[in-house]
TrEMBL record, chain A:
Localization per record: Cell membrane
Protein name: Hydrogenase 4 membrane subunit
Pfam families from the UniProt entry: Oxidored_q2
Keywords of this entry: Cell membrane, Membrane, Transmembrane, Transmembrane helix
């Protein structure tokens, strides 16, 4: 259960936790579950670091812990507090849980098929996790599309970003530190800006329902 | 002259300006101070940017900060666009913001927000065109989104916030595809290069491109085309574009449409070059043709259908980005040169038209074309600029877009893609109808009762006149150094094919080949 098998098992845990984020009923629960899923991501990075001997990955896991496990959920929980009663954040998604799970299952299957065609030496041992990271990306996209609450749509972006992070670690474990810092910093800024925009929407438009935000169609 | 220091100054100046303005208190600081810092910063961008562009046109290849930044002939063309359009729209912002303050649409904090994010926006675009590190390229494109969100939503109305939300969520999700494509290229390159740390540099990856894994390169190109194509406004990822362009202040719309879309296309082009060097030009050209034709076809009818002046112009941007993609899809020296010339021509023309739309909004307080009548009668200079801008956008001579569209048609004929040329021409006819209708309906006609005959402030008209002069100049005769640099940029794109060395006179050679083909056909007949 150590080495690459452990990485692949943790990869499977990523899918489960990301499903939990998508299915969370409240914004608060989604934030905590996202923190949990990021903890799994940290474990993936650290175990991958141990397997490949890449010291960069240990540093990445430390920065991922600070930014994804602590900072991003804290920003989102703070935003929820700021919004208060100005608008409803806990709107149900457009798709019921059963359909959401089925959709994610299809995405995971398609990603496994797509990744089986890739012939890259660095990815040979971690093909299942590579498929998971790609699927993770699409689960994030699904989260954006199916959520009615624009607050919960932020988690979709976060999941997509986590998927990219895992792919970067799997395919380029020796990537320079600055690359990872660039990607992580960008993600933090993106979450801050999305959170500010959600807060302004609640304050000025009194709604966080994506269905109310379609006056500009056409 | 150490151009690498100048490049760092160019990058640093807008950031320093943004930080300086951010540190000033919004309410206690007079608007003039924000304006002074804003103008000073843009003046430095204009001077240092054009200086760098001139040095690259003269044959320099500039690297800075250990290869993280690189300005080649291709990037210089786009930097030139930034160095011209950013100061022009920045100057136009002064009367525009003053008008919005007088109208009560913007308060002190929003004015500060506008000028701070305008500088950050300019910085992020310069970063995008000068980045040699492919991850930094992605970060810079993402940064263009993050720096413009609060410019799009600066009015804080429900519609502006809706547009800002759609913009940020569609673009960040879209550009995440670009990150995936970038990572695939990096991982692929790191596998074949002796020093994995060099695999982040575009200039290091390009010579190794033929050795990359073919299927991964194709997947990476599709991801990059979708991701950065979202930012460029290509159909069907364009959904953010009409909303953001219509709700943003007009100078921001001008900068978004005139420059930002082209910066995103430059990144797509960088990936196009890698993919062409790896799997041949056929695959990336096919992807570009599909995205381009869909964009042109869809957007042309939307241009005709829209009643809102800024949404009409926004869809026109989508259509023109599609035309550029079609040019790159046609390929060959003529196609690539046509695409690059169209980037410049459309950038200048659209910046002009969005600024003119801003004049119209200052005068009529509406974007509804049904209510905008008789511009020539109530604001004669704006009216003339409006008519000239519409004709320029429709591709009439003697304006710049006529040259690029003719080159595109020639490229299509040279490549035997007659069906493609026919499809594009049909769409162009629809666009011409829409723009001529705009002239007859809004520039002419009876002005609303009681509207005084008074144009917008001279400070708003000056940058527009400069832009129009450039559009005419490029339409009448492309200056030699500029055309030479376009050819050199074309040669960089064509570098995957050995028959087009960088020193070759691409355009004349291609035209001669086209004429030679016709003579051969006549002889055989």
């Amino acid at each position: 259960m150590f080495g690459y098998p452990l990485v692949n098992v943790l990869g499977a845990c990523l899918i489960i936790t990301s499903m939990l984020v998508v299915l969370a009923r409240t914004g608060r629960a989604a934030a905590w579950l996202y923190s949990l899923q990021s903890l799994v991501l940290v474990a993936v990075l650290a175990s991958l670091g141990a397997v490949t001997g890449s010291t960069e990955l240990f540093t990445w896991s430390a920065t991922a812990f600070a930014t994804k496990v602590v900072l991003v959920p804290a920003i989102l929980l703070f935003t929820l507090k700021k919004i208060g009663d100005e608008a409803r954040t806990d709107l149900p998604p457009k798709l019921n849980p059963m359909k959401s799970v089925a959709l994610v299952a299809v995405e995971v299957f398609v990603c496994f098929v797509a990744v089986s065609g890739i012939d890259l030496p660095t990815a040979a041992e971690v093909r299942p996790t590579l498929a998971v990271s790609l699927a993770h990306f699409f689960i994030g996209l699904t989260c954006i599309v199916i959520q009615r609450s624009i607050f919960k749509q932020i988690f979709g972006y976060c999941l997509m970003e986590n998927g990219s992070h895992v792919t970067l670690a799997l395919l380029a474990p020796q990537a320079p530190e600055l690359v990872e810092i660039g990607v992580a910093t960008d993600a933090i800024f993106a979450v801050i800006i999305l959170a500010v925009l959600v807060w302004r929407m609640a304050r000025y438009a009194r709604t966080l329902d994506a269905d109310d935000l379609c006056e500009l169609k056409g | 002259m150490d151009y690498s220091i100048l490049l760092i100054c160019l990058l640093g100046c807008p950031v320093v300006a943004a930080i300086a303005m951010a540190l000033l208190p919004a309410k206690a600081t007079p608007r003039g101070l924000f304006e002074a810092i804003h103008v000073l910063s843009l003046a430095v961008v204009a001077v240092s940017g054009l200086w760098l562009v001139a040095s690259v046109f003269a044959g320099s290849d500039i690297f800075a900060l250990g290869g993280w930044f690189h300005l080649d002939g291709l990037g210089a063309l786009f930097l030139g666009l930034i160095a011209v359009i950013a100061p022009a729209t920045g100057l136009y912002s002064l009367p525009y913001v003053a008008h919005d303050v007088a109208d009560g649409k913007l308060g002190p904090s929003q004015v500060k927000q506008y000028y701070v994010f305008f500088s950050l926006f300019v910085f992020s675009m310069i970063l995008a065109v000068t980045s040699n590190n492919i991850i930094m390229m992605w970060v810079s494109v993402e940064a263009t989104t993050l720096s413009t969100v609060f410019l799009v939503g600066v009015y804080r109305t429900k519609l502006a916030l809706e547009a800002a939300w759609k913009y940020v969520i569609v673009c960040t999700a879209g550009v995440a595809f670009g990150l995936f494509g970038t990572l695939l290229v990096y991982a692929n390159a790191a596998d074949v290069m002796a020093d994995a740390h060099q695999a982040v540099f575009w200039t290091s990856i390009l010579p190794m491109a033929p050795a990359l894994d073919h299927s991964l390169t194709m997947i990476a190109f599709v991801f990059a085309a979708i991701g950065f194509g979202t930012k460029a406004g290509l159909f069907p990822m364009h959904t953010w574009l009409p909303d953001a362009h219509s709700e943003a202040p007009s100078p921001v719309s001008a900068l978004l449409s005139g420059v930002l879309l082209k910066c995103a296309l430059l990144i797509v082009l960088r990936f196009y070059i890698l993919a062409a060097a790896n799997v041949g030009a056929g695959f990336p050209q096919l992807v570009m043709v599909i995205l381009g034709v869909l964009s042109v076809g869809y957007a042309a009818f939307e241009v005709y259908r829209q009643r809102d002046i800024k949404r009409k112009l926004a869809y026109s941007s989508c259509e023109n980005v599609g035309l550029i993609a079609v040019c790159f899809g046609i390929g060959g020296p003529l196609g690539i040169i046509a695409g690059l010339v169209h980037c410049i021509a459309h950038g200048l023309t659209k910046a002009l038209m969005f600024c003119v739309a801003g004049n119209v909004m200052m005068k009529y307080h509406t974007r509804d074309l049904e209510k905008i009548k008789g511009i020539l009668a109530v604001a004669p200079v704006t009216g003339v600029l409006f008519v000239a801008g519409c004709l320029a956008l429709a591709g009439f001579p003697p304006f710049a877009m006529f040259v690029s569209e003719m080159a595109m048609i020639l490229a299509g004929i040279a490549a035997d893609a007659l069906w493609l040329v026919a499809l594009v021409l049909v769409a162009l006819v629809v666009v011409i109808m829409a723009l001529v209708t705009m002239i007859t309906g809004s520039a002419l006609g009876r002005a609303p009762e009681g509207m005084a005959r008074k144009d917008v402030p001279a400070l708003a008209l000056v940058p527009e006149c400069v832009l129009l002069a450039l559009v005419v100049l490029l339409g009448v005769a492309l200056p030699g150094p500029l055309f030479g640099s376009i050819e050199r940029a074309g040669a960089i794109v064509m570098s995957y094919e050995d028959e087009y060395p960088a020193s070759e006179n691409l355009f004349e050679g291609a035209l001669a080949a086209l004429a030679g083909d016709e003579v051969e056909e006549e002889v055989s007949e």
